[in-house]
Structures are given as C-alpha cells and as structure tokens.
Design a protein that fits this description.
about 220 residues; mainly alpha; 6 helices
Length: about 220
C-alpha cells in the first residue's frame, strides 16, 4: 500500500515536472518566434533606410562634385582666366553652400539606442552597419568644419564687402562685377576660398567613403536575405 502511494506521488511529481518543462519549452519557442519576427521587421526597416541612403549619398556626391568644379573656376579666375557672369553667380552660391549627411536612419538609430540591434543574428550585417556608423561619425566632423567656415568667416566677410541680395538671381551685373573683382584681387578672400575648397574636398572624400560603407550594408543585407 505504501509502495502504491509512493509510486503515485512519483508519477504525480514527474507529471508536474514534465508539464513545467513543456511550458518552459513553449515559452522559449514563443520567445524565439517573436525575436525572429522582430528581427525580420527590423531588417526590413533597415534595408529600406539603406536603399534610400545609398541613393541620397550618390546625389549628394554629385552636388559636391559640382561645388568643387566651381571652386576650380574661382581659382582660375584669380589666376586671370576671367569667369563669365553666370559662372561668378554660381561660384558665389557654392561659397555660401555646404552639404550635410541627409539620409535618415530612424529605425537603425532606435535599434542601437534600445538594444534591439542585438536581434540581428548575422555577424556580417552587424559589422557592415557598425563600419558605416563609424564613417558616418567621421563625415560629421568634416561637414561641421565646412559649415563653420561658411557661417563664421565667409558669410560675415562677403556681407561686409558686397550687397549679397544683389547677387541673387536675377543678379545685378554691377554687383556681379564687384564680386568678380573681389575674388580676383583680394588675397583674404582668396585664402577663405582655399579653406572652403579644402574642407569641401575632405567632406567629399569622407562622403564617398560613407556611400561605400552604405553599399556594403546593402550587399550584406541582400546576401543574408
């Protein structure tokens, strides 16, 4: 009789243990399934962001190339190869312009700050993204430097020497001529031009690297997908 009770209790205990293990296993399976669904949603969002980032960085690169060509025209003008009025207006616009890293990464940024980034199982995808992030931060440094020379030096200098509103399209020919003479003869202006050109060139170089890193992310996502 005692043996029967003992056996019944053992069976009952075993049943409880098995039930607990099954419940834990079901919870674990549910957690895994939920993580995979969250990962798929995260990767879809990141893929969309990087597809857009690659396109935006390419467009940005073309704009930087155009700015660089105008600086070359400005330097040639200082050496005596007189630029046309239209070219001078374009040079003026480029001197007061700067580019900045425009691609939005709301999904990625949220994943990095919330810890959801760890949902991504692929080492190659995570590595490619983090390399892009580092390049993105480096680019920010040069873009800030480019913006600061415009805001802190070029804008005040030009505003004190020219009627800037008269250089907007349609530009006043007399003010364009004054700008051309200032660009040709003023060495302080020439120095500012060189600094702006160098900073734009550095930003252009690092923007190209950021674009390459973004393309690496797209390739990694495509391979893993």
């Amino acid at each position: 009789m005692a043996e029967g009770k003992l056996s019944g209790r053992a069976t009952e205990a075993l049943t409880i243990i098995v039930s607990i293990l099954l419940a834990l296993g079901a919870d674990a399976a549910w957690d895994i399934q939920r993580d995979r669904a969250d990962e798929a949603e995260l990767l879809a969002g990141i893929t969309s962001e990087f597809d857009a980032a690659v396109q935006e960085l390419r467009v940005d690169s073309l704009a930087r190339d155009a700015m660089h060509r105008r600086y070359q025209l400005a330097l040639a003008h200082r050496r005596g190869d007189v630029a046309s009025p239209d070219s001078l207006v374009a040079i003026f616009g480029s001197l007061l312009d700067w580019r900045f890293h425009t691609p939005g990464h709301a999904v990625l940024d949220d994943a990095l700050t919330s810890g959801r980034f760890q949902l991504i199982r692929s080492d190659s995808v995570r590595t490619a993204i983090m390399r892009y992030q580092r390049q993105r931060e480096r680019l920010d440094v040069f873009e800030v430097a480019e913006r600061e020379i415009v805001e802190n030096q070029l804008e005040p200098y030009l505003a004190s020497h020219l009627a800037l509103d008269r250089l907007l399209r349609p530009a006043d020919p007399a003010e364009v001529a004054r700008f051309g003479a200032l660009l040709r003869d003023d060495d302080t202006f020439g120095s500012l031009l060189m600094l702006k050109r160098q900073r734009t060139r550095m930003a252009r170089t690092f923007a190209g690297m950021a674009a390459s890193r973004a393309e690496d992310v797209v390739r990694a996502l495509t391979t893993e997908g």
